[in-house]
Amino acid sequence: MKAAQIMSYGDAADVLRVDDVERPAPGAGEVQVRVEASSVNGHDVMLRAGELKIVSGRRFPLGVGLDFAGTVAATGAGVTGHRTGDRVWGMVHPRQRHTVGGAAEYAVVPADRLAPAPATLSAAGAASLVVAGATALIAVRDTVRLAPGEKVLVRGAAGGVGTAAVQLAHALGCHVTALARARHAPALADLGADEVLDHGSTTSDLIGPFDVIVDTVGTELNCYRSRLAKGGRMVTVGLSAPALAAIAASSVYGARRIRTFSANPDATVLRALADHVTSGALRPVVNSVYPLADITAAHQAFERGGVVGKHVVAVSE
After folding, report:
1. At 283, which CATH number?
2. What is the pLDDT of residue 241?
3. What is the mean pLDDT of the segment spanning 154-179?
4. What are the start-end ranges of the H helices in 62-184?
5. Does one domain contain both 143 and 108?
6. How far apart are CA 84 and CA 252, in angstroms?
7. Dihedral angle, C-alpha 98, 104, 107, 109, nearest 10 °
8. Handedness of CA 245, 250, 254, 256 (dihedral sign)
9. How many Cα atoms sit within 13 Å of 103 on the Cβ side?
10. Which of 58, 205, 212, 303 is deepest in the core (most CB within 10 A)?
């Protein structure tokens, strides 16, 4: 089968390859999925660049692609609830080393990392929502416990997590302020943003206060934290060494500290995510679709940024 792999750490053009590899077989409790689409996430780019080598190590090749959508091809012993031909979405474990990831013609994962994909979504649409949508859901539902009617700032609102967070907050009846490039205002308003501010000309001291801040950027965290209202909460998913330092330092502020989490959604989260799709509260935002053979271009597009939504890799029809 064909699979995208990282041959060493470095730039996409130098280290990403699509090779013929042995098709993985499902073991006990595992499911083999015929992958139709995957997407490019920050985790994939950080992995390829060597920023996660403390987990991934230095043995190559490494599989790439955190999420996927497709159909069940085979099941291992003891698997119930998944049958051959079922449409599913899921992800590989972000903190384990894989020689085959989601950007491959077949992937094998534990059964509890899969859930039925929403029937209304294409494979590309489903793949675009697995990591981004689940991350946004965990952020607003579990981490800051967003409540109806609250004033919310989504910083980095045009990205995958940001577009999902805008939609989920809007569906809750919140007043949503999106911080992004000015040219993305029409698209974000269509997703439910009540106000769109240009991040290039809007500094943190000019806005707020907010009941909740959802940050996907990971910079200037203390400046934005200061824009919280009394009883406000803030969460960031944009992690870096400076961001982790700011998160740790903010612990003195108690409930108004900067929170974060490791998004590792299981089947329960994926089923909840599907419910939001089915209800109409959440829809995918796909910016571009690349064939598996052009996954290098997809990574490069992700790193350039400046677009609304996700870059998707089409693996098979």
Report:
1. 3.90.180.10
2. 78
3. 98
4. 123-137, 160-171
5. no
6. 52
7. 50
8. negative
9. 31
10. 212
CATH number of the domain where residue 171 is located:
3.40.50.720
* Residue 56 and residue 205 share a domain: no
- Is it the case that residue 281 has pLDDT exceeding 70? yes
Distance CA 264, CA 95 (A): 9
Q: What share of the chain is helix, strand, coil (3-state, %, to 5)?
A: 35, 30, 35
122 and 268 belong to one structural domain: yes
Q: How far apart are CA 167 and CA 148, in angstroms?
A: 13
Task: Work out the percent of the chain whose per-residue pLDDT is above 90.
Answer: 90
* pLDDT tens profile 6-47: 999 999 999 999 999 999 999 999 999 999 999 999 999 999
Structural domain including 75 reads 2-128+264-314
Query: Do 101 and 175 share a structural domain?
Result: no
At 244, the pLDDT band (50, 70, 90 cuts) reads confident
Average pLDDT over the chain reads: 95
Residue 55 has what pLDDT? 80
Domain-ending residue, one of 240, 259, 278:
259
Tokens linked to 231? 């009883």
What's the count of helices (H) and strands (E) in the chain, helices before strands? 10, 16
Whether residues 254 and 201 fall in one domain: yes
Residues 273 and 107: their CA atoms lie apart, in Å, by 21
